[in-house]
What does this fold into?
Amino acid sequence: MNNIIKKTMLLAAGLIVFCLAANAQGGRTIYQRYSDMENVNAVYVSPSMFRIIGRIPDLNLPSGDVNLVPLIKTLNGLYLINSRDAGISKNLMIDAMNFVRSEKFELMMEMKEDGNTAHIYTQGKNGTVSNFVFLSLSGSECTFISLDGQMPEKELEDLLGKAIANL
It folds into this structure.
């Protein structure tokens, strides 16, 4: 995997901990469709787990400059699907892109390098981010991450700025 894709995935991992999505239906539906397939890695994190993590006094990104605890408490769920199977990855990418298009997500970031792509999408209104999706395709490997919850847009922007500055 290229260095820039790795950095983006590290950023996404940090974002996973503090980014949100209010409408988990798309993420949940995609998770349910793929999670029991062979050659698929699947992770679901429930609201209960986020509440437990939120009780940790300080939880920082590796740089130590961004405390994630206040935002973790607002997460309702995380759905992650990853596959290196070319056929599954192709279908996962199609389903994820259809979800993003049908729900009218805004492209927050796009990265392309040597045929590899990574996208971060958000959805929201009235100053609140209501959906977050990370989608990456690197060769035959596809990763889809969807989060649900609610978060003030200003807080998300501040945290993203700090996280990106620390890459």
Remarks:
- The beta strands are 40-45, 75-83, 106-113, 116-125, 128-138, 141-149, 151-152.
- Confidence is low (pLDDT under 50) at residues 16-24.
- DSSP finds six helices and seven strands in the chain.
- Helices lie at 3-18, 25-34, 47-53, 69-72, 86-102, 153-165.
